[in-house]
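User: Quick sanity check before I run a bigger batch. Here is a single chain. Can you write out its predicted 3D structure?
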Amino acid sequence: MDNKNTKKRTHVLSFPITSSFDAVYRKDSPATPVGPHSHNGVELYFTLSDLPDVLLNDTVSKVPAGTLLIIPPFCVHQLYHEAGTVYERYILSINTAWLDAVFFENKENFSYLKQSTTPLLLTPDTAGKDCLLSHIRTLLSFPDSSSPKALANLFLFLDELNNTVNRLAPESNRTFQISSTQKHINNIIAYIHAHISEPLTVTDLAKHFYLHPDYLSRLFKKHAHTTASRYITLQKIATAQSLLRDGRTVAEVQEALGYSGYAHFFKTFQKNTGISPSKYRAQYFKQEPMP
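Assistant: Done. Predicted structure follows.
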C-alpha cells in the first residue's frame, strides 16, 4: 500500500445540529394571553417591560424590566397577561437534547438550564444586559439555526451566559417584590407542590388554608391567571413528563402522581401534551448504551 496516497484518519466529534435554538423578538399587546404552561426545552426570557404577576414554578411575584428569566424544562410558568398592555421581550429557546449531546462528557455543564425546580431570575447591570442582548440579536439574524455561523454564535452566547450566571447566581435567590395576596398564593402553590402525589382538589386546599372554596378560587385566578384545579393538572403533567423522560414506567408515573386509574391518567396526559404517555416515553427516554 502506498502510504503517500493513504488519507490520515482523524477523530471527528459529531453531534445533532438541527433545532438547536430558536430566537424571537416581540413588542406587542397580546389579544389572548398565553395561560400557564411548560416546555420540553429551556426558555430564556429577557423582559424589557415590568411584569406585575409572574408565575414561575412555585412563586408569584413582580419582575422588573431588565430581568433575564431562565426557565428550565417542565417548569410551569405564566409571564404576562394584561390585554391592551404592550410587552417587549427577547425569547431564546434552546433544545436540551442538543445540549446533552454536545456536552455529553460533562453532564454538569449548563445544569441550571435543565433543573425544573430551580428557575433563575437574573438582573445584570447595564453592560451585562447590553452584552447578552447583543448576542441574542446576533442569533436573531440567522434564518437557519443549524448553520455553522449560527452555532458558533450560540456557543459565544452560552459562554457569556455562564459568566453571567456565575457572577449573579448567588443573588438570584433573592425574591422580587411580593404583595401580601401573592404571598398567600405562594403558600397555596407550595402546598400543591408538596402534595403533588395526592388527588388534590380545590376543596382540599380551601379546608387546609381555612378559606371558602370560592374565595380561594377567585384569589388564585387573580394572581396565577388560571384556576387552582388547572394549575394542579399542569404541575402533575409537567412532573409526569420529567419522570417519563427519566425512564419511569407509565404505571409508576400514574401511581406516583395519585391517579386512580390508567384511563384517567392517559386522557389527562394526552389532552395536555397531544401524545399518549407511552408514546411520549418511547420518544424521549433514551437508554444509556451498553458498555
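Residues 104 and 289 are 13 Å apart (CA to CA).

User: Great, the batch can go ahead then.
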